[in-house]
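Record format v2
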Amino acid sequence: MYLKHVLPLAGAATLASFAAHAETITVATVNNNDMIIMQGLTDEFEKAHPDIDLEWVVLEENVLRQRLTTDIATDGGQFDVMTVGTYEVPIWAQQDWLVELDDLPESYNEQDLLKPVRDGLSQDGSLYALPFYGESSMMYYRTDLFEKAGIEMPEQPSWDQVQDWASQIHDPDNDVYGICLRGKPGWGENMAFVSTLVNTFGGRWFDEDWQPEINSPEWKEAVGFYVDLMNDYGPPGATSNGFNENQALFSSGKCGMWVDATSAAGGLYNPDESQVADKLGFAPAPIAETPKGANWLWSWTLAIPTSSDSKDAAKTFITWATSQEYIELVGETEGWTSVPPGTRESTYENPKYQEAAPFADFVLNAIQTADPTDSTLKPSPYIGVQTVNIPEFQAVGTQVGQMIGAALAGQQSVDAALDQAQRSVERTMRQAGYYD
Amino acid sequence: MRERTSGRTVGGFRNLFLQGPAVTLLLLWMLVPLGMTLWFSFQRYNLINPMISGFAGWDNYTYLLTDPALWTAMGNTLLLVGWVLAISVIGGTLLAVLFQQEFFGRGIARLLVIAPFFVMPTVGALVWKNMLMHPVNGVFAWLSNLLGLPVIDWFSSMPLASIIIIVAWQWMPFALLILLTAIQSLDDDQVEAARMDGAGPLAIFWFITLPHLKRAISVVIMIEMIFLLTIFAEIFVTTSGGPGLASTNLAYFIYIRALLDFDVGGASAGGVIAIILANIVAIFLIRTVAKNLET
């Protein structure tokens, strides 16, 4: 009985899908809030483009990166649209793994994209990926705690001041820690933050001959400062805190200060998600020796792999998902604090966004001051603020991140950890053929 | 060709034909992946940098064997296996003796004590990480606060020990299960006779129960060792091999090479070294176990 009903139904469904002639494209993306919203708007897209069906593969960041890298490097062709970061785009473009996006429709308004973001995604003047959302880093703090301690936030805080303030508001007996920072090892986790700290202390990853400088005095000073700061005024278990963990700590009122991605601002400012929404202060990322490279630059972008069979349909989708209309659609349906930030000037000119998001100016300023081509005090051979845009950086960043995690946990002294990191980076670079 | 009473022939060409397909399939199943691993281990093959390719000679092996991280990982692997085996065998034996006694609710108690083995490793590790060992929300932190002791941040101050505790918690029930069944086959008359001769409970345990369990213990050691060499999920979920390399074992080391560095060549070389290591262990084990099983 049951089968009799099911079979015709299945047959009808197959017929229907043939009749529609819809092209299915597979979109691989990361499980961040903004992408979940994009997935939720699938119907809107399919209504406007009845000839294209969307299929989603939503994964956690590390897993996504593994799947995409193995797929694209082995020419697997599983995905038509890939969500990649600013680190991958120039490297993959050089390998001819990504489709060049030089014939975008007039209505897309390419010039509206923020310049540092657009530059990061271009190779020889043409775009290889379209930015979905962009971010820099900034400082969040609790205005109530600062008021109680009588601290006035200057226009540009310095790390020395931050240390001083942390000592004043640190109150572990009441579950409030002076400052929360990333401690979880990984090139995209603790190293994103530590790299900017090293930049502003005047250090760099490599000298002009690609010799690593991980155990230079600047690195030792910066990492030593970070470890002391976290041990004195940080939350316990900091070595397992990444972006998400710190966001949870800060929004539940357990941190006095937090320096991290600008993309957290929307959530922290939303009273449904955060207990500190009404006592939230913003400031630029603190600086030490130099303002250069004190805040990072990152964007999540949509790109089309050359192995895709549906390049045109994929292009239709990515221009839709990164367009001005999409941002307005999200603003109208989800609320203006939920729109993907950091990609278009028009978003920041929009009065509705300005009204809903008081942090907009900070974010825009932070993104515009980050310059991947000039992020270190001494000259460096590489491009990138918190990353080094070479294929080996994933391995290098992972190794150094592990060692700094060990120093933070007190397993090793800062000097020993950095010396060991230096040796292991030298090995990796030699193996990759940068020098003998 | 001998003929059995049943009329079936043993050996000869016909058998070869019948067994051939199955044996070939099994060989392919085993040899193809092994061959590919060997092949890749001699290639310069990094997924994110296809510019560098070609035959690498012994390069992957030299870089690997001169990498201090490999030796740290090997040391950690041995420590992990050794400690978990010691804890689970000693604890398992004692618990098996305990759970053999008659007491009220024995059936339910046995079920509960075996339960950890049926929890998926990832889930078990998550429970330990977030509910027991967490320095802020964990039960252990709450307990030490209650007693006025300093809170231990388990995964950063004693990472390998924490992993050993979690893995031992998972594998002790397995040892218990095997040893309990072995104890149940112990002849009651023998124990009774010993008791009548004036042997105390300790003497009975030492001279009767333990020799009786010898076989079962060697089986436990063999099976557990095979699985413990490849522990991964617990490390991945809790410490990610860190801080530094403090809890990186060989399996996790290879994972870092293959899926974080995307260095297929180096990871394959690591895989080959792991296979060699596992085989050395297996040879020793099978010899000792075989000796125990003969009697």
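Chain A touches chain B at residues 66, 69-70, 73-74, 91, 95, 184-186, 235-240, 391-392, 394-395, 398, 402-403, 405-412, 417, 420, 423-424, 427-428, 431-433 (CB under 8 Å).
Chain A is about 45% helix and 15% strand.
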